[in-house]
Fold this protein.
Amino acid sequence: MSHYKDNKGYARYLLDLIHKEADLPLTIMEVCGTHTVAIARSGLRELLPKCIRLLSGPGCPVCVTDDLDLDLVMALVREKGIILATFGDMMRVPGTQSSLLQEKSRGADVRVVYSPADALTLAAENPDSEVVFLGVGFETTVPTVAVTLEQAIRQGLKNFSVYSLHKLLPPVMKALLEDPDVKIDAFINPGHVCTILGSEPFRFIPEEYGKPCIVTGFEAADILEAVLIMLRQHKENRPAVEIQYRRAVRPEGNPVAVSFIEKYFEPATARWRGIGEVPDSGLALREEYAVYDAQRRFPLSITPGKRRKNCSCGEVLKGLKLPYECALFGKVCTPVKPVGPCMVSTEGSCAAYYRYGAQKAGVAH
Amino acid sequence: MTKTGQDDVILLGHGSGGTLTNQLVKTVFQDAFGNPILNEMLDAAVLDVPKGRIAFTTDSFVVDPIFFPGGDIGKIAVCGTVNDLAVSGAEPLYLSAGFIIEEGFPLGDLRRIVHSMKEAAGTAGVRVVTGDTKVVGRGSADKIFISTTGVGLIPEGRQLSPRRMQPGDAVIVSGSLGEHGLAILAQREGLSFTTPVVSDCAPLQRLTRAILEAGGEGVRCMRDPTRGGLATTLNELAAQSGQGILVHEELLPLRREVVRACEMLGIDPIYLANEGRVIVVAAHDVADRVLEAMRGLPEGTGAVLIGEVIPDNPGLVLLETELGATRIITMLEGEPLPRIC
Amino acid sequence: MCLAIPAKIMKINGMIAEVDIGGNTKEINITLTPEAKIGDYVLVHAGFAIQVIDEKAAEEIFEAWEVAYESLQRQ
């Protein structure tokens, strides 16, 4: 599949077309952190016409994990006999007081895994410990956790549970569209979330809010194609959901994966860092699987810490501010010592801006 | 050693300084490294000081896993220190080797590690002239740690320093990037995948000698891009020289397997460690000669020009993307953790 | 979010498949793509195949890109 890499010429051709056709201001939000990184890595911001503004939305489940939720996770890992398995991205994310990396250095047993399946292996290998998988991720990741849970049940593993901080994208996109401060003309839709969900759950965006919504792949040429499509939709005032990322996304998504999500999880209110509580935008384990639900299994009562002041992650996520417009950016808050979640994840908007020097490109805008 | 099977593993007694220590030194270390200076078994190695200036460096090695495709902790302990001397423009001469070993460590593994050190030292033309062994209780160290210190000779008149870098200088790398880092990552618990990529771990003194012969005074400085990879080393050079560096994404030598595995793990290969590569900054007019000399050696066959020193953006490293945009490359922040999202 | 990469299925053993990722091999779980066969390309996320990639669509796009690029060259 490497030929998607060999499309420099095509990308330049698309850039030419975009420069010719772009005559109206257009604010585009990429909902997906992987897009944020792809845009930064290829330097697209600098290459697009000045009237096209790219905003990074709430596209990284690490970014949007609430610090109060994380305080509870930190309290759990300090308990004896707990092994917490999580993705590498979560290690540096701060709660109000510490991060998993810090807890690990103080003796907590925290393991980085590549796959939820690896957490199951840990449970089998450590029968005397409780292995908790910290479930973060959007619709793309949840089915992999659901399959893992099914295997745990089948194998009769009693020492495995899931701490579900999973989040759902369509409800939060709706919440963003309902916010009168948020001014977005079009969405670059998360390609891999749509691999699972298909395009249908996003129809409300053009139909109710009149915004183009393009399901987009992750090569520079994919993103440019999507920009061109939404530019044309916007000009001709015919907003629609369109799949640019056809090689990996079908209109119906992956129904097997969706049924796995529905079998084990049900929608629940979730806290999004910087955005607040959004009804039905999270996933909790269904009642019948309560025994595999770490939140029910290990009830903890802790006093939540205090949130940090002056962090603009909320506004950054909503596209109201660019990262370098935050008072903390690059000074108090850096990838080495992040304050807000947008700096923590390598895909977080602030980290991407910091790392790839998009600050410079942003000023040029 | 007794014949009760105790010689299978390292015991606390092997570090006590008594009979067991003596036996270990004789049968393992002296057997491998033996040379007239070491064999004196004095409290300190006594060395002749040749004319010129002395380069002196030290490093500790805690790599996990201790055996990996393309090398082991012993090979890397010798190459790492030899390469630090070599890129400083020195001819490596002497090494010390200090071992901290966890009780219960298999003696066979120690022999294997020491054998690799012997081979690497032989290739690099250095002698291990002094050493030390300590054994700590189970759990007090992870298997084995090795510390090496190296002494090398810098011939008179040779000056290598980033401060000599000037706009227009060529930036050259001796081969494809990130192979050591990837080979190690592939072995990591929870990440296991199989890759044909092996560590590039190798001594570089022959290559640096060839570079200096070909480029003469035009060679401004050299660095081995170990921890933190190319990106971090270029940032050090930019900061120390006060110059800007521009590299071109299209010119970076990367194996397909490294690129694709990095995509899977969400890691940028320019942050992965190398243990057998050198970055050379050389005056524009000697760059071709330097490249040709490098390509004439097996450890430099993949040598390519990747960028240049630029007059603007002092202290920064810029990368020109394939589409022609530029972005700033920063140093590695923290350990590269594989990510999923 | 959601890093996912294409991989080619080399072997299948129950719900576990061995895939080729640009010359590297890895075992993944294919429960979510029951239709996947040896030789198919799948999209891999967190050690699971999450979709069979439509090779035909991929080829068509590639050809479209080629054509566009060639026409650009002629301009």
